Amino acid sequence: MKDILDIHSHTIASTHAYNxxxxxxxxxxxxxxxxxxxxDHGPAMPGSCHEMYFCNFKxxxxxxxxxxxxxxxxxxILDYNGKLDLPERILKKMDYAIASIHDNCYRVGSREExxxxxxxxxxxxxxxxxxxxxxxxIPLDYxxxxxxxxxxxxxxxxxxxxxxxxxxxxxxxxxxHTMLQLCRKKNVxxxxxxxxxxxxxxxxxxxAMELLQEIDFPEELxxxxxxxxxxxxxxxxxx
Length: 239
Prior knowledge:
Elements (H helix, E strand, L loop, with lengths): L4 E2 L14 H10 L4 E7 L21 E2 L2 E10 L11 H4 L4 E5 L10 H12 L6 E2 L11 H11 L2 E5 H4 L8 H15 L3 E4 L12 H9 L12 H5 L8
Parallel strand pairs: 1-2, 2-4, 4-5, 5-6, 6-7, 7-8
Antiparallel strand pairs: 3-4
Helix pairs in contact: 3-4, 4-6
């Protein structure tokens, strides 16, 4: 399967990642990416950058090392109402936003409460992707999640980092099996991302692509094959 984009990644601005923006983009280019997105953590993540970091992306070149660069944020979902950790006045300045549940920024609830948190975040017009919906410690109703993704035109992520042997998220493979079968059934597209915190894995989706191949997931439902397909979700790519 063609794989030319990776838009969930972190730089030293997140403080628990280990390479600069230029190093990350260079590594992604070497791994064959045509589009790369930097999405450092929102300010609710311990040690992450202040909201001012997200206000000056216009200073950054949008083409580096021969590939296109977009700048966004991995927002933290803070509560069951889908509250996020950056205001609209900042979100509208960015190219895109991923929204994720991290258990150090969120009080884990029941399956229904966690699902409500993710679905309510999808209702925010600036959120285009739900990041790593796979952690067994944060149970989700995948039937409801996939249905909401289709309704609100949001991509569900298959996170390569979650599927790595060193992953801190238990049950990811089994949960992705469930989610992907529902995506196939409901015709809901997905995006594969590295969630790279080090240049060594920027643009690398080996574990995720192996899973998609294993279950024979339809290529037409994977936006990684075409920037044009991703542009249906990220208006910045139509500029």
